[in-house]
Amino acid sequence: MKTAKILSTFLLLCCCTRLWAQKDPLERLWYNEERTAKIQVARHADGLYYGTIVWLRDPLRDGRPKTDINNSDVSKRNNPIVGLNILTHFKKSGENKYEDGEIYDPKNGKTYSCVITANGNSLDVRGYIGFSFIGRSTVWTAAE
What we know:
By secondary structure, the protein is mainly β. Helix content is 13%, strand content 44%. It has one domain: Beta Barrel (Lipocalin), CATH 2.40.128. The strands form two sheets. The chain has an eight-stranded antiparallel barrel. A two-stranded antiparallel sheet has the order 4-5. It is globular. Mean pLDDT is 89; it is low at 6-20.
């Protein structure tokens, strides 16, 4: 009888731990729309979500790793693109919606306000300045 209670308690704890440990839909590896980059999104200790470029289809420029040459901050132009944080400070605001973050575009060196909506194996990513209806949307797909 005692063994059955211990076993039941152990199984219950395992199930609860598994539920608590489930990843958020945003936390995974994503391709950008052009499939030229993979972005790993993770929740950090501050409870916010961040995304880092971890792979480029064409990682080299003139035989060297691509750097952030378009950054408006001249001191950051030698930073490699692989390892660059392009999504910052996203808060979960619904089951599949993330807001109050920013997206950095290394193609033009600009940072935009951004909202993200997770839809299964895709993300609707909308960057904008000022109002979200004045912006550009893109769809990222799961890379896993």
